[in-house]
Give the backbone structure.
Amino acid sequence: MKNTITRSLLCGAALALAAAGSNALVADEVPKGLGDQPSESEPQQPQKKPQAQPQQKPQAQTQQKPQPQSQPQPKVQQKAKPKPKSTFGGYLSVVLPQSDLGNLVGTGIAAGGFWEMPFNGLSPNLSGVASLQYIAFGEQKFLGGITCSGTQVGVNYDLHYYFDKVYSGFYGLAGVGFHNCTLTIEVPALGIWGGAASGSETKFGFEVGAGYCFTKYLDAEAKYFVGSDSWSYVQASLKYRF
């Protein structure tokens, strides 16, 4: 009985091995790839095409152009401004006697000429003025018909300082003068008495003043002269340069 069971188990095992061997042979004969095919029931997914990557264009190498070297520019020579030149001219004045002179004579009129030289090498604002003038003072009347008049001939030298530039704008002045002064006294004839007497004297003095140039050719000026023996006056002039 035991032998019968053993034989039946061995026969069953042999049949199982034979069936397994036949299945392996069938699987080897199936062409490759059929097993990978999806079943009809499963939907096929579309295959994604590989996207073409955009080709990067090679960047053009920018060649730096050599910069031209800056050449030194020639210096532009500025033209020198013309320097003021010497001028000469004339003037007319009204003279107002002061102090003791004002007690002897009346208002006078003066005329003169001048020569002005700028001091370009020293200062652009400074000039020297030499002048020659003649003054005729009016008569002054006293009791008894006595009259007194006077004249003056003299030279002056002044320094002018222009606040802007020579021959332009305001200026101040200071100088000296030498004058020959004459006084004439006339006495009306009373019987055997009467006639005229005169006397002259050289006066030295100083003067200060100021002026204004309207143009290069025309200016106005006022100054005060103080001489010896109280010979003093104020002079206002209108000057013209040629």
About this structure: DSSP finds two helices and eight strands in the chain. Confidence is low (pLDDT under 50) at residues 30-39. Residues 87-241 form a domain with the Porin fold (CATH 2.40.160.20). Strands lie at 87-98, 108-118, 126-141, 147-162, 169-190, 193-213, 218-227, 232-241.
